[in-house]
Amino acid sequence: MGHKNILRHYSPDEVLYHDADHFFQSLNSEIRRSQKSIWMEFYTFEFDSIGKSIIKNLSTASQRGIDVRLIVDGIGSSSLTTQQIRFIKKLGIKLKVHHPLPWQTSKFASCSISEFFNSIVNINKRNHRKLCLFDQKILYVGSINMSQLHSRRFSGDFSWRDNSIRVSGKPADLVKEVFELSWQGKYSGCRLFGKTLSPRKSSLRINHTKQLRKYFQNDLLYRLKTARKRIWITTPYFVPDNKILQQLNDAANRGIDVRILIPRKSDMRYFPLINSLFFRLIKGSGVKIYEYLPTVLHAKNTIIDDWVLLGSSNLNSRSYRHDLEIDYVPKSQVAKNSIIHQFSYDLQQSRPVELNDIIGRYMVPQIVGPFFKLIRYWL
């Protein structure tokens, strides 16, 4: 049975998409309506049917004088060839590759030793965001990449389960400065820290600096610690640090309804094994674990009581420490309810996972568990 996606419209300030095809259609409409600027950041941008459609409309927008900028990640978008990148730029689209691999640059053959090693040092620092900013007033954030893998139209029942949200007003205005910093390759000195981007004041969570990363990590730990009713988490990659694990265990032990939803089918072959190793550390406390069966589950949602978070961040060290991410806290109750209802629907297409299932499915040497715990800093 194929997975079901729900699209619902809310107040003019928040529109939530659980269906990638509607998301892509909406992006194309925004591109055609834009009057001044179109700025995008995508971890994965593929030159497939979806990507070509977006590129065509971006080119048309550029021809009518719109400032079109695109940032893609060097690893996430490694399928883009040098020829394709040149082609995109010739269409009038300003394109930059975040921390490209050495051989992805035209200067690779003549680069200095210091330039080569600098690119190697940055190889673990990725831009994992998926955001679109139109006229600096309409913002899309979520976990949908620019790829037909997310599209039911092109991938059928194998299309990934994912979501994104469209917001307008102040959140969109705040992203303007952060995008400019990314465009310039600057990742410190963000003036928004502590004021407009504090967890208690902003619906946006942008981890552009170490201070902001710590801010939002501590806020999440506090919310887990003070949860009164439920903690429902959807994540494709379950590699939490010890503090998160401890709070999940403590919450379950004090009677909180803690549920973790992960995919049975992963886009990363080794992650079902890694997920299972970390599940062994929490299963005994009463945490309920579910595997989503229909297809790859790529959404990243956290529900703590009536507080909801969605975006690009995974529950792993990569998002905590290394990658650039952007998340959003919906304000309208109808938007929050939609994510809660989607979680409940996803559970109906999932199966509970017992500890014996985990042990029986992955018969691996005991040394493997400590090994993955050791390297989770890079996962």
Description:
It is a single chain. By secondary structure, the protein is α+β, with helices and mostly antiparallel strands. It has 2 domains: 7-180, Endonuclease Chain A (Endonuclease, Chain A, 2-Layer Sandwich); 198-378, Endonuclease Chain A (Endonuclease, Chain A, 2-Layer Sandwich). The chain has 13 helices and 16 strands. An 8-stranded mixed sheet has the order 1-2-8-7-6-3-4-5, sandwiched between helices. Strand 11, helix 9 and strand 12 form a beta-alpha-beta unit. Helix 1 packs parallel to helix 2 (49-63). The protein is globular, with a radius of gyration of 20 Å. The model has no long low-confidence stretch (mean pLDDT 85).
Question: What is the topological layout?
Answer:
Blueprint: E1 7-9, E2 14-17, H1 20-33, E3 37-42, H2 49-63, E4 67-73, H3 82-90, E5 94-98, H4 113-121, E6 130-134, E7 138-142, H5 152-155, E8 164-168, H6 170-184, E9 204-206, H7 210-225, E10 230-234, H8 242-253, E11 257-263, H9 271-279, E12 288-292, E13 301-304, E14 307-311, H10 317-322, E15 326-328, H11 333-348, E16 350-352, H12 355-361, H13 368-375
Parallel strand pairs: 3-4, 4-5, 10-11, 11-12
Antiparallel strand pairs: 1-2, 2-8, 3-6, 6-7, 7-8, 9-15, 10-13, 12-16, 13-14, 14-15
Number of domains: 2
CATH fold assignment of the largest domain? Endonuclease, Chain A
Continuous helix count: 13
Radius of gyration: 20 Å
General shape: globular
Strand content: 15-25%
- The count of DSSP E runs of length 2 or more, i.e. the number of strands, is 16
Order of helices and strands: EEHEHEHEHEEHEHEHEHEHEEEHEHEHH
Oligomer: single chain
CATH superfamily of the largest domain: Endonuclease Chain A
Helix content: 25-40%
How far apart, in Å, are the first and last alpha carbons?
Answer: 31 Å
The CATH class name of the largest domain reads: Alpha Beta
Question: In CATH terms, what is the architecture of the largest domain?
Answer: 2-Layer Sandwich
Poorly predicted runs are none
Please, what is the average pLDDT? 85
